[in-house]
Write the C-alpha cells for this entry.
Amino acid sequence: MNDIMIGFVLLLLLVAAQASINGNTIKRSDFPDGFLFGVSTSAYQIEGAYLEDGKSVNNWDAFSLSPSNIEDGGNGFVADDHYHRYLEDIETIQSLGVDAYRFSISWARVLPRGRFGEVNPNGILFYNKILDDLLLRGITPFVTIYHHDFPQELQDRYGSWLSPLMQEDYVHFAETCFKNFGDRVKHWITINEPNLFTQMAYKNGKYPPARCSPPFGNCSAGNSDIEPLVVVHNMLLAHGKAMKIYRRDYQQKQGGIVGVVVDCLMYEPLTENDLDQEAANRGLAFYIGWVLDPLIFGDYPSEMRQYLGNQLPRFSSSESNFMKDSIDFIGVNHYTTTYAKDCIHSTCSLTGNRTINGFLDTTRERDGIPIGEPTGIEVMRIVPRGMREMIEYLKKSYDNKPMFVTENGYSEPLAENENQNVLQDNKRVEYHKIDGADVRGYFVWTLMDDFEWVHGYLPTFGLYYVDRETLNRIPKLSARWYQDFLNPQYVREYIS
C-alpha cells in the first residue's frame, strides 16, 4: 500500500465520520479497487482439538487447567471446534463477501516441541487445506505467525520470552512457516500485540506465565518493572531476525510483505494542562513507540531511554541495523481510548508512579463523565474519534508507513448479553458503521464468538453467535449488515 493510499485512509476516516453526522450511507462502491475488507481470528481462540493429530500442550492449555485463571473457568480445549469445522467456517467467510481472512498458525500444532522436535505433518496439512480453500474461493490470507500461544515445553525448558533462546525458537518457527506456506501467503504478521501480551503476562500477571510484582499484582514470581522490557526486547529481535531471513531467502521469490501488529490504545490528556498532554505523549511512546520505533528507526523512543535509563535493554549496532525498517506495514489493533494524567508533578496511584508506565495514570472518566459507552470488557469504551486520532498519530510518527486495521470490534456489555437477544446486536452494527468499517485494510474482530483469553467465553465479539452446547454458528444482525455492506447493492439501514 503506497503513500497515496495511506493518505486516502485518512480521507476515508474523515468522510465516514462526516457521513455518520449527516446520516448518509457509506457503500463499498465508494472505495477504490484494492481496498480490503476482512475478518480476523486466532488459532487458540477458535481451533480446539488441543491434543489431536500431534499437537502438544501450549502455554494457554497449561494455564487454563486452573479454572480460576479464566473468568468463566473456560479453556480452549474445544473452543469453536474450528479444527473440525474449518470448511464450514470458510464457507461462512465467503458468504460474507470479504476480500481477506486473517488467522494465525498454532505453534504447538506445527512444531509441538519447538526446535527440539520434528515438524508435525498433520499441522502442516491442516493449514495447507485452509490456505488452498481460501485461495480457491478468492479470499486473500493474512497469516499471523505468533498470536499469544507457544509450546509449553519452551516455557518449562528456559522460561520462554524471558530468555534469548526464545528468539532462536521463534525464527525456526517463522522459517518453517515461510518454507511451507509462503508460496501462497503474501501478507505475513510476525507477532500479534507484543505490547499487550507482555503487559498482561509479565506486568499484570493475568496471561501465562502469570509473572508480576507489587503494586501491579501478587504473583508467585516476577518483576513488573524489569521483565516486560526484557520480553519485548526478545520479541523484537526475534521479529528482526526472522525478517532478515525472509528478505534474504524468500521475499523476492514469494513476493510477500511482512508486518507486526500493535495494540494501538489511544491516549488523550485528562485535562488541557500541558503536563497531561505530555503524559499522553509519553503513553504513546511507552506503549506503541516501544514496539514500532525499533522496527522502523532502529532504537527505542528517546522518552523511554530518558526515564528508564539502563533498565531499558540496548541494541548492538548490528542489531539496530537489521531492526531498522524491518516491517513493510503496521498492523493496527484498535479498540478504545483512555485519558492520561501526569504523575511526575502530581500525586498518583501506586502503579502510575512507576517508570515502566512512563509516570502516568490512566482513567476512563473525566469529571465523572465516562470517555465512552461501556462494552463487554471493562477497560474498553466506545470512543469513535480514537480510531481517527490513532491513524493520524501513526501516519505522522512513522513516515506514512503502510497500515492495515487488523482488529477492531465490539462486545456487548455482559448485562445486555444476559438480558437481550444476542442475535439483534444493533450496537455492533452502529459501532462498525462509525468507528472503522471505512478504513483501508479493515478487519472485523471477530468472525464468531470465541475464547477471549482470560475473559473466557463471556465477551461476544463475533459477527456469528456460537451456541456453546451445539457449537452451531448463527448469524447476528451485524453479520447481515456486514454482508450487505460488502455487497455493491448495499442499501438497507439497520439503525433506527
The first helix runs from residue 3 to 22.
